[in-house]
Amino acid sequence: MDDLIELIDARKTSLSERVPDVTRRIQEDFAPREAALVARLDRVLADNASRRNKIVKIQALVSEVREAAAAHAACRQGCSACCHQRVMMSQTEADAIGHRIGRTAVQLRSDYVPPALHDFGPATPCPFLVQDACSIYEHRPFVCRNYLSLDTDALLCGFENLALAKAGDPRHTPVPHLDPGPLLAAYRQVSGKDRTGDIRAFFPPAAPA
Ligand code: SF4
Description:
- It comes from Noviherbaspirillum aridicola.
- It is a single chain.
- Helix content is about 50%, strand content about 5%.
- The chain contains 7 helices and 4 strands.
- A two-stranded antiparallel ribbon has the order 1-4. A two-stranded antiparallel ribbon has the order 2-3.
- The radius of gyration is 18 Å and the shape is globular.
- The structure holds iron/sulfur cluster (SF4).
């Protein structure tokens, strides 16, 4: 375990070189498509469509951008540590996902308090995680689409690094991500004053039979 924590701590050094370099390469790769994407995003926001519909279109745009960056990311099929952590979304997005998967999302009450980082770990899988795969992949939330690690492997996504964060240990090393930029701003604009909550509050896991 000590060796693993040393590796996590040491990752700060390699990431300080890697992340700016990878971010620049992703931006260069995406540059020819950027203006078109921004124009499409503007059209989504200006469209006379429902908020749910707009959220679904913004989700699709996030996926498109992240797919362009996938070659530089550590994320791989079957790697599901991040699916045990907090997965926040707005009520509108939960309603949109519920509509598409045939489930009614819970309407969050005014006294709902989102769970804290400390509440998550190996025993808190997302209710849609089935055999280490997302069972609603086509309809997964914005945050899941956006969550792309720019590291070289899943070391920082593991529960050991999460435990360091919970303990306030300075050896904790944050997972490096791309800045969602205008996509997140658009998501927030469409969500408006919605309540936001963890996916487990909107779609509670089924009680054991
Ligand atoms: S919705 Fe899918 S991708 Fe997102 S946390 Fe749940 S299982 Fe993982």
